[in-house]
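Just scan this pair:

***
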Amino acid sequence: MVALVAAGLALGAFVVVTDVRGRAEASRAADALSTAHAHLDRVRAGLARDGTQLRASNAEVQSLDTTVSQDKASLGTTNAAIASTEEGLFFGGYDIAALGSCLGGVTQALDQAAVGQTSGALSSLGSVAGSCGAAKQGGG
């Protein structure tokens, strides 16, 4: 009978030790699971922020793409207007290079006159007088 009681006590002690170990292991697993869930929540929040930022960036790229397309169209219109103006100047008998030189000198003279450099302004006008005269072929 003593052997039976001793066996019962040994079995009881084994069960208690096993139960304590099992509860400790279950507690560690629950803590690890809780930590993993918290990390997963942070990752999901980061992905949500990144997704929002990506959508905003895509919208900005689309807006810029539209703006670039509009600018290209405007540039095409401007280039056509310049070509038409150059053609008109050519057919009107103007030397575009001489006209550009003349206008550059006149602009410089106006800048000089604006700051009180009258003699410099007159000198600048004198230096481009030939270009201004040559701008209209035939002296007209």
